[in-house]
Design a protein that fits this description.
The complex is a heterodimer.
Chain A (H helix, E strand, L loop, with lengths): L1 H11 L12 H7 L3 H14 L1 H4 L16 H5 L6 H7 L13 H19 L14 H9 L17 H4 L2 H9 L7 H4 L3 E5 L6 E9 L2 E5 L5 E5 L6 E5 L3 H6 L5 H12 L3
Antiparallel strand pairs in A: 1-2, 1-5, 2-3, 3-4
Helix pairs in contact in A: 2-7, 3-7, 6-7, 8-13, 10-13
Chain B lengths: L7 H11 L19 E2 L12 E8 L16 E3 L2 E6 L2 E6 L5 E6 L15 E3 L2 E5 L4 E6 L5 E6 L14 E3 L2 E5 L10 E5 L6 E6 L15 H5 L10 E3 L4 E5 L21 E5 L6 E6 L15 E7 L2 E9 L4 E6 L5 E6 L7 E4 L5 E3 L10 E3 L13 E3 L4 E8 L2 E5 L11 E5 L4 E8 L4 E7 L10 E3 L3 E6 L2 E6 L5 E6 L9 E5 L2 E8 L2 E7 L1
């Protein structure tokens, strides 16, 4: 599950600035509705229905929220929505909208897309996540965070604000293990010490509760069972300082550092 | 003793009440009504578990192309037959050999999340199965033929059903999952003979009902979520069914539902004959992190300050361990069980954590522990009356939670999560009298929470990575392990056949049965 979340995050990061309420491409694609029809339907709805139902169809004091409407959610091909659009609901004060059949079809397509978008969190887009103070972020970077122990804004981080959209940037500096191609740059090493005999060190190939595998500096592969904590296994993870940060970081620190990194264009 | 198979449910009630009856079968989701997943079988124990070896392993194939089988159900074992499920499929399998006797298949339709299926309930010769598209199916246990099928919820509203039905007297007790759109949750009782609805208890109050004051208005409460998607537990002496309810809707954007939002994220006690609520305890007031409180409410007869007490224990998804008096719902112990929990301002006088508004999802991202998946999740915990310890596989991890819906009328989830690294899986053996771990097993690799089984042989079975692991229930020493084709995907069970004690575990699409050779 964690992997899929990050995959979605990277996939959708390019469209993070799009307004939240319009159905986005992911929602349109997922709902399998025609994009042009959805666009026309949204414009029609805003003009004809928005005054009561709101331009995002989430309702107002005078008209109900259609995303919560059982009828709208249950509709598959307009069979439930179209009769309401044709005739209105006089008893509830909804006039006949006076749309053509084709226009009604467009409104149906748009509503389907909204339902799909609300129900499928994989389609959700970030709001503006750059809410921090870049100057304070720089102070944290060079001060309490000790980020400058390993990183340099004109060195390894040069252009990082240009390379990644803010949500990805924020995830990556907090959790750099996820970096594509980052594994070799930040490979975990391991030292394995048997009950007797010399210890072996190398790059960690795999680890679980009962086995450790590594490759030593000569390229040789070693696999050792682990029973009752023998051999002793010590992992050296160059990224560990990032994970330790979680216990001390405030949300303000996070936002400030991200704002600072975003300035490294 | 040996179960006839005709009336397992009544026998389970007796077994639980006496607490001493030998239990050779596994006739309900949790083995008995208490939710302890403690077996009285003791042929297998700490001195011989090293000799446990494979009796059989069987891989199962599902019915629809493209839908992989994942056995997250806890099998029942009655009269030598195992009954278990995956989404759309129910199997009867010979418990001695792993041979498939029959398979029932029904293809579900709809876009609802295809999470999993936790198993069947049994009454006389009938099995009860919930489909992911919300039908309750009654099957003939001998042949796997469908006796009746009734619709219980609308998949177009993104309800989905995954729990193992619980049979209490002549009631089949069920609930649904679902929180992709704003919908009301419910618990229902159905007639085991006909499927007819007997009663329905809504997880959120109607206008004027108790709890309505914790919502802005009836409209918000009427689609306020609270889906109870895990099987509950039952105390025959008190005649109360205990079940946890899900998170409120909209899930992560709480602006339109100010208040505690009862009875979401709660443990509730219902009369199984009427559906009337006797009491409630809310684990997460005004939740905004998707931390339902559906984790098994385990019933234990314990002792607090030298006095015998009828208790209910839950390790909740929000990272807190709750001990309640199960007659009244009053808090006895409340304590965080993972060290990383960072979302609360402390505890109120009722034993509830007080949510910190600053830790709600924000546009810029909020660092929260536990993550959305929780400090634990659906994999069943266990309790051993021998060791007086409660066993749960916990996750010490963080994530970033982003508000994505800033509308005054948010819909659906309203937020999203970015997972962070460095998380740890920790097996905890918690002393229920204090909420503090008596021992902990920090796994080398974090593979998410795994189900638990404990036995009178002073053993604890669980999983980590692709291994089934046996530990000394008292000390936590690892005594035995076996590699599986994938990680443990269900709650392991144990049963006795022909004088041999089996341990059965699901891993992905396969079942593994181990015995002493």
């Amino acid at each position: 599950m964690k992997r899929s979340v990050i995959a979605i995050l990277i996939l959708t990061a390019g469209v993070w600035k799009v307004a939240a309420q319009a159905p986005n491409r992911a929602a349109i694609a997922g709902s399998k509705e025609d994009e042009a029809a959805v666009e026309r339907g949204g414009a029609l709805f805003g003009a004809q229905c928005g005054a009561c139902h709101g331009t995002s169809a989430r309702g107002t004091a005078t008209g109900p929220d259609l995303i919560r409407s059982v009828l709208v959610r249950d509709d598959e091909k307009g069979e439930l929505i179209m009769p309401v659009l044709r005739d209105g609901r006089q008893e509830k004060g909804m006039p006949r909208p006076g749309l053509t059949e084709a226009q009604m079809g467009d409104v149906v397509a748009w509503l389907h897309t909204l339902i799909y978008g609300a129900a499928n969190r994989g389609t959700y887009e970030f709001l503006d996540i750059l809410v921090g103070d870049a100057a304070k972020g720089e102070q944290y970077f060079n001060g309490a965070g000790k980020c400058n122990t390993c990183h340099a804004p004109k060195g390894d981080l040069a252009g990082i604000g240009r390379k990644y959209d803010p949500p990805v940037l924020q995830s990556l500096w907090l959790n750099p293990r996820r970096t594509r191609g980052g594994a070799s740059r930040a490979a975990r090493t391991v030292t394995v010490t048997p009950a007797s005999g010399a210890s072996i060190s190398g790059t960690l190939e795999s680890l679980d509760e009962f086995n450790v595998a590594l490759r030593d500096s000569s390229g040789a592969y070693h696999s050792l069972p682990i029973l009752n904590n023998v051999p002793r296994v010590e992992i050296h993870d160059p990224l560990q300082p990032h994970f330790y940060l979680y216990r001390v970081l405030t949300d303000v620190d996070i936002h400030n550092v991200t704002a600072y990194l975003a300035t490294l264009q | 003793m040996r179960l006839s198979g005709a009336i397992p449910v009544l026998l389970v009630g007796v077994a639980m009440a006496s607490g001493a009856l030998a239990q050779d079968s596994w006739p309900t989701y949790n083995g008995d009504y208490s939710g302890r997943r403690f077996s009285t079988l003791s042929r297998l124990d700490t001195t011989n578990v090293q000799n446990l070896s494979l009796a059989w392993a069987t891989r199962f194939t599902g019915g629809a192309a493209g839908v992989g089988v994942r056995i997250s159900s806890t099998p029942l074992m009655v009269d030598g037959i195992l009954y278990f499920t995956s989404i759309d499929n129910v199997w009867a399998v010979d418990a001695r050999s792993g041979r498939e006797i029959w398979r029932y298949y029904r293809e579900s339709k709809g876009d609802m999340p295809r999470t999993g299926n936790r198993g069947v309930g049994m009454y006389r010769q009938w099995l009860y199965f919930l489909t992911i598209d919300n039908y309750l199916v009654c099957l003939d246990a001998a042949r796997g033929t469908q006796r009746w099928i009734v619709k219980i919820a609308d998949a177009k509203q993104y309800y989905f059903s995954s729990m193992a039905p619980v049979v209490v007297k002549n009631h089949v007790l069920i609930g649904t999952g679902g929180d992709s759109l704003d919908i009301p949750g419910f618990v229902e009782a159905h007639d085991p003979e006909t499927g007819a609805l007997q009663w329905k208890w809504r997880t959120t109050p109607a206008k004027g009902e108790p709890g309505a004051e914790t919502w802005p208005d009836e409209y918000t409460a009427s689609a306020g979520g609270g889906s109870p998607w895990i099987s509950g537990t039952y105390d025959p002496a008190l005649n109360l069914y205990y079940v946890g309810t899900g998170n409120p809707d909209p899930v992560g954007a709480g602006t339109s539902r100010k208040g505690d939002n009862l009875f979401t994220c709660s443990i509730v006690a219902l009369n199984p004959d009427t559906g009337r609520m006797a009491w409630y305890f809310q684990a997460s007031p005004h939740d905004t992190h998707d931390w339902d409180a559906v984790q098994t409410p385990v019933l234990i007869d314990g002792e607090i300050d030298g006095r015998p007490r009828k208790l209910l224990v839950q390790a909740s998804r929000n990272g807190y361990f709750f001990v309640l008096d199960r007659r009244t719902g009053q808090s006895v112990v409340s304590a965080p069980y993972v060290a990383t929990v960072n979302w609360s301002l402390g505890m109120n006088e009722k034993g509830q954590p007080i949510p910190n508004p600053a830790k709600e999802p924000m546009a810029g991202g909020t660092l929260v522990s536990p993550p959305v998946s929780g400090a634990t999740n659906w994999p069943p915990p266990a309790f051993s009356p021998q060791t007086a310890l409660f066993y749960v596989d916990a996750s010490e991890a963080y994530s970033l939670m982003y508000l994505t819906d800033a509308d005054s009328r948010p819909e659906g989830f309203g937020f999203r999560e970015a997972a962070l690294g460095g998380g740890k899986s920790v097996l905890l053996a918690i002393d229920y009298r204090t909420g503090k771990p008596a021992w902990r097993q920090e796994w080398r690799v974090s593979t998410g929470p795994a189900g638990m089984l404990t036995t009178a042989g002073r053993l604890l079975f669980t999983g980590n990575g692709n291994y089934l692991v046996a530990l000394d229930a008292a000390s936590g020493a690892v005594l035995w392990h076996a590699g599986l084709v994938s990680g443990l995907s269900n709650g392991p069970i144990t049963y006795l056949l022909d004088g041999r004690q089996y341990v059965l575990a699901g891993a992905g699409d396969s079942l593994y049965a181990f015995v002493l050779q």
